[in-house]
Amino acid sequence: MIQRFFRTTIPLLLSSVLLVLTTISCDDNSLTPVRYDDIGPFDTTGVESVTAANGLTIYFHDEGHGEVIAENHSVRIRYTGRTTDGDIFDSSFRNEVDAPTTLLLRNMITGFMQGLAGYNQVVDGQNVRMHAAREGSRRTLVIPPSLGYGNNSSHRLRADTLVFDIDVVAIATEN
After folding, report:
1. What digits encode the pLDDT tens for the residues 70-86?
2. Cα separation of 133 and 68, whole Å?
3. What is the DSSP letter of 134?
4. 0.70 cut: is pTM over it?
C-alpha cells in the first residue's frame, strides 16, 4: 500500500511542480524589464551625420528597410529625450515598459518631425525632401531650441538643445 502511494503520488507531485515552474517562467511579470539605463544613449562616435541649415543634426545609426516616413504618419517608436547635459526629460521606457509608443508626427516639435519625416532643402534650384527615415531606422536627433520648445516662452526646455535617441519600429497609420 505504501509503495502504491509513492508510485502514484510522487509522479503527480513532480508533474505539479513542473507545471507551476513552467507557468511562472512564462508569466510576463517575471521577464526582466527593459530600462533606458541598461541601453544608454546611442553612441554617436564615428556615426555618419548631417546638419541641416536650420541647425538640426541627424545621426544615422541604421537606416532600416521599410516604408519611408512622411509628416502625416503616426509612427511606433521607442525613444528617449534628454538635454545635452544628459538629463532625461521623456522616454518611452518610462515605468520600465518596452512597448513602442505611437506618436503622430505633425503633433511633435518641428525638429522631431523633421528628424524622421525629413526636411526641405533647395538642391539645384529645386525643393527636395532630405533624409526621411524608414521603418526600422535608428537615429539620434540633436534639436536646437528654435526647432524644439524655443517658440514656447513658458516651456521649461525652451532654451535647451534636445537630444533624442529613436528606434523606429513601424509606421502605424496615415492621417
Report:
1. 999 999 999 999 999 98
2. 6
3. B
4. yes
